[in-house]
Known about the structure:
This is Integrase catalytic domain-containing protein. The protein is α/β, with parallel strands linked by helices and 201 residues long.
Amino acid sequence: MALNYFQRAPFNAEDYKLATFILLQLHQQEKSISDREMANLKFLKGQDGLIRLRSQCLLSPTRYRRSPIIQNSESEPLKFWGNIGLDYLGPTLMKKDGGLEKAWIMLVTCPFPRAVHLDVRGSLDTTTFINGFRRFVARRGKPRWVLSDNATGFKAASACIAAAWQETLNHTQKDPYFTEHEIYWKFIPELAPFFGRHMRD
């Protein structure tokens, strides 16, 4: 079995400047240090030296990581319940007329004060959701931005809002609620971990 350079010519493990110089040279040549090379370089005490070295290296791609995009709806100071997140909990069982029925809970969260509004809904259809949303607005006030996932009820409600907006443009609108109040709806992109944090936190 062939010995590598550090096994053939060992040096004092406490000599931190020499170890840092060798690691910097390897790091600038290879742009990164693999786990196999770390196993050969046993003079560093754990991963602390490597983490410290990577934070000091100007060529390392890990030094300049892209920060997550903060949405305007999460960073703008708006009024209470100005930006909300929507989701459904359930189904759960609810007593009604002496029997048990399925029910869902409409969960509305506000990112600014971490407030939560819960409303029991009997089904997931669009009409029930819009009625629950009107009830929320009557109690808490009108939001400006609504952020939700891609559930079918939310998509259908968004389509109803878009159709109502088209009717507003054509001056033949029957239900001007969402367009009169200028409520903007946004859906979370799929597989996007930085969107909708205030809904999950």
